Amino acid sequence: MKPVVHLIDQSRYDTEEIRTKVARAMHLDGFDPRGKTVFIKPSFVYPARPPRQSGVNTQPEVVAGVVRALRDLGARRVWVGEDCLVGASQNSFVAMGLLPLLRGQARPLYLKDEDRVTVEVSRPLVENRFFLPRKFVEADLFVSLPKLKVNMHAAITLSVKNHMGLLLLRDRLPHHHYDLHKKIADLYRTRLPDYTVTDAVLAGEGQGPMFARPVPLHLLLAGANGLAVDVAACRLAGFDPRTEVEHLRILHGFGLGPLDLADIEFQAAGLLDERRRRLERPRVRPEPDFPASMVFCLGRELACVEGCLGMVRGSLDRWYLTQNFNRIKDLAFIVGRPVTDIPAGLHRRRTFVVGDCASEHRRLGTFIPGCPVNPMALTYAFLKKGILGPLDIRLREMALGLLMRSLGRRRPGWPTFY
What we know:
This protein is α/β, with parallel strands linked by helices. The chain is 29% helix and 21% strand.
């Protein structure tokens, strides 16, 4: 029997509309959460108060709508688990304005603070175990809520890639290089989603994942087979999953779902062609997009887009997108190996040696270790040099998130000052 993917016409972010339509799709698929505990995982890559970052993050109305749909269908308990790249996990819920929408409906889980267990992977490609939230493992059902957006590290972010947010940052970094797609495939197989709802009301194109620009596709994609939903989303965004998204091709090889549209049964199939748009891919190599006074020395054999090179590009995109280069116009970056064309006379205080592959050149500037480097390490290094660009998350929201963490706020009883 072919897996079913629902293409749900959704013109705006409206919680009650999404609630009704998602509940109907789940019912038609025989998805039954009655009396069960459901773990929901949205994607808050770099949270900011909507509508900012609306092409980057699963929007709060989608999360709230799915939560209410699950409760309408009889779910006993709903957990919404997510992390934040900037500070405490609570920051993401505060910055997205999600907490009031969950009150009385679902419990937020701040994944940095959650107990974790080791989960083994059968037939691993690169990693044979992962340290995952206990509640993710123990929940009766798992629902994935990704945002459809391009991703300079992994081509596209969908339900398979959404699993990466379950990991602590220290556990995300190993194999976040040329082996990234294999790592993603290993992680996905720790637990497949029982249901997937993809936010493509506004998709994200351009410099994703951090700076994806919103594009209206006015769709939700839903179904019980995560790989089928991802393949449909790829086609909607103009990607060929066979040639452009390695982790989907790997998982198809494990027999976890289709790669061809002919092997999927669609509800409202006409919307796939009607709304299809080739999303603009990220620009990764930095040289053409930045001032000639900037120096980029890249390894001839290894400078991973999935790792350090992508981290460098992502850290610079805030200036690229505003064309405000005054603070960075004379910076130099050394990335990868072997690097043989380093010009003489680089200013040591304005030079960054990024990643373990380039460590032999560490004396030439600020060395940032890692394979890959921590995605925030370059931001912190820029901060120390007084060249930090604007942040999308407000200091007030970061402070409130940290306060909530210090008070141990793990239940749906929000502080009165929120």
